Amino acid sequence: MQCPTRQHEGQRFKYALCPGLVSERVQLFWCSSLQDDEIRSLQARIRSECGSRINAASKSAAKTGQGPALTGRLFRDLPISQRTLRGLEASKYTKMTEIQSGAIPLALFGRDILGEARTGSGKTLAFLVPTVECLYRQNWSKMDGLGAVIVSPTRELAYQIYQVLINVGQEHEISAGCIVGGRSLSEEQQAVSNMSVLVATPGRLLQHLDESPGFDSSALLMLVIDEADRILDFGFQETIHNILGHLPTQRQTLLFSATLHSSVHKLGRAALRSPEVVSVHHNAKSRTPETLKQIYMVVPLEKKVDTLFSFLRSHSQKKTIVFVSTCKQVRFLYEAFKKLKPGPAVMELHGRQSLTKRMLIFQQFMERERAVALVCTDIAARGVDFPAVDWVVQADCPDTVDSYIHRVGRTARYESTGKSALFLLPSEKPFVDKLTQARVSLKAIAAKQSKVVSIQQKLASVLAESGDIRHLAQRAFASYIRSVRLMKDKDVFDIQALSKEAFAESLGLADVPDIGAEWEAKDEDTEHNKLKKRKNQSALQRLKEKIKEKKKEKMRSHKDEEEEEELELSQQDSSKKKIGKWERRQRRIAAASKASRESVAEATPTEEDFLQLVEGRQAEHGSESRTEVLPPSKKRLKIRKDGSAVQASGQHVFFTKHGAQASELAQVADEMRTVANVPDEGGDRASFLKRVQDELATRDSSDAALSRSRLQKRHQTKRRKERAAKGAQQEDLSSESPGSPPPSPARPAQRERPEQADDVKPKRKALPPPVSKIASMDDLADLEKKALNRLGGLFA
Ligand SMILES: Nc1ncnc2c1ncn2[C@@H]1O[C@H](COP(=O)(O)OP(=O)(O)OP(=O)(O)O)[C@@H](O)[C@H]1O
């Protein structure tokens, strides 16, 4: 089968304004004058060389299976134009890879191709060279409408293909553009009608085919579907079928994929006509490049963030790509790791970023040679050709073996080497068997625990400082749990095996975030139905439902609280009923007496004694410390055993060094310190109490001595008076016997109550009854002696 031919005259210099991703002017030079001779000779060569090589090429391609990517065949040996050759050489492409040497001759000959080759094996050139050549040989101009279209699953990949196209086609005169979602459709509409080659994502291409009036695809020569497996994974099957419906059936189609699954074959059947299957690594020992070293680590969920951080820090000079399951995880890890110093240099790439930002990061990461880690979702998993990536880390287990292969394919591309690490939860270990069955061999490695740093505390403080990052952590938590819930392969993904508390803690969260009751539901069918329902709802409806659900939950919890309160009250009531009248009265009396005791206790100087004595103890350390301990309010305080003081109102007061009341936090800290220091302080208190007792005893005995001497004085005065009176009597009544007058009742002076003596106050003995009559001076002396003895006994 030969390429369809079309002849055009008057081809002149063309350039194109790329209407999609890149707004710069791109010039693709096409032959300024038709070189009919060259085209004729090329067609003759293709007929003879490629036609004869058709079977041999596909057979040898299928046979090789392994070995170096480059075959030794040179681009210059191909029947291709000088312009394409110059473009290839300018881009440093001289030797062909296996997929290129297998697919290009067949494609030049005009055959449809179903190509399968490992990641990084050069599929892009395998379809770009035939595309450019096909248009060149047809003298294609913008007047002919759309000549070739290349469909790619992602914007990044489309942009990358577009760049290779303008490099390889730099000597040609061709208009090319890249159209992807995320830009204004109307801006593109005018430009697309002038394009000869378009690189497009499926959705946007269909939109133009449907809605752009000047967009003529009826004469299309070549359709390329790149990363077909990915396109199908993204759910573009229907879109592709609709696109096919717009395109002419008489066309050449090239379909490339890293994996040829039944679904890809199915698409191939719909899109291709009698294709040549070029599967260069079909029989290879491994489905991944030999230059790729692969390891896996079993990491518990709660250790994952620590392990990832430690890994990146210890590989900080490498260029690394980290894959996680969701955009929210990317956001959290990026923001959190940025805050942790010293940490790795990180970048983020995910689908929630604006197109401009995505492109900017994409470009920046491409240009960085080392010492950077790109945290991303599967958006960067397929086809994207970042140069010189040292490590691919899959922090979350991929959904399928194919996803794994695509992810690791971001390193060890073309002839370079690379390494990959897969983190698996203990419950995800069956994934290793699946990889082994799919001809992917990897070694088990354990992280050196001594090298794994725990960043949990640091994360907790980052989250405490920043509400935004805390919010990101909560969302990352929820989105991860949901992603595991949604995974189809239940042999590998077990939501029940996830320790949510520990996971939340590992992200620095104090509580387990609410992920929505529906995600916790265990019933598969119910869950499935709910998801189905959610899918069919509009975003607004979903939001409304969410708010409703939240409100309901609030009401429920409020009601629960109320119910609990009610229950408590009713329990109190019922217990009240059970208490008898007599007991209630007893309780009232007890409560009243307790209250009066407390009020007495508050009024009693005992508390002040403690306070003073504390002051006294403080005074041992100097007068300054004595004043520091005083609370500024000078309210009466009760000192408790733990060193805290209680105001009359019952509120705790803690003394600080400065005498002021400490803040709530400091109070808690003081409380903790007090509790922690109980043994020491207990020792202090014991000696302190002993000192108090000694001092009281000293004071008591001095009081007793004072009282005794006062009493003695009083007695002496009395005796003197009595003697004087007796002498006078004797003078008056010289006949009467000598002696003292009877003493007045011996009342000891009221002892002054020592202020601090309450606690050690001895019981007072009853005083002797007053003596009414004194018989003689001897009696008086005897009485005095007895009284003194009694008083002395009182203070002994
Ligand atoms: N013939 C060649 N000579 C030198 N380098 C090449 C050649 N072909 C491809 N490369 C380089 O190899 C790398 C991988 O090529 P390409 O992106 O086309 O691989 P791929 O098979 O499409 O990978 P994936 O399946 O991951 O998309 C690129 O950096 C590309 O520049």
TrEMBL record:
Q: Compositional bias (Basic residues) at which positions? A: 710-723
Query: What catalytic activity does the UniProt entry give for this protein?
Result: ATP + H2O = ADP + phosphate + H(+)
Would the keyword Nucleotide-binding turn up in this protein's UniProt record?
A: yes
Stretches assigned to the Helicase C-terminal domain: 304-460
**According to the UniProt entry, which residue ranges have a biased composition of type Basic and acidic residues?**
542-552, 574-583, 617-627, 749-761
Q: Give every DEAD-box RNA helicase Q domain span.
A: 73-101
Under Gene Ontology molecular function, one entry of this record is:
RNA helicase activity
Q: Motif Q motif residues? A: 73-101
Keyword tags: ATP-binding, Helicase, Hydrolase, Nucleotide-binding, RNA-binding
Read off the Gene3D superfamilies from this record. Answer: P-loop containing nucleotide triphosphate hydrolases
Task: Indicate the segments annotated as coiled coil, or none if absent.
Answer: none
* Enzyme Commission number: 3.6.4.13
Location of the region described as Disordered in the Swiss-Prot/TrEMBL record: 520-644, 695-777
In terms of PANTHER family, this protein maps to:
RNA HELICASE
Family per similarity comment = Belongs to the DEAD box helicase family.
Query: What functional role does this protein have?
Result: RNA helicase.
User: Could you identify this protein by its name?
Assistant: ATP-dependent RNA helicase
The organism named in the record is Symbiodinium pilosum
Write the lineage as a comma-separated list.
Answer: Eukaryota, Sar, Alveolata, Dinophyceae, Suessiales
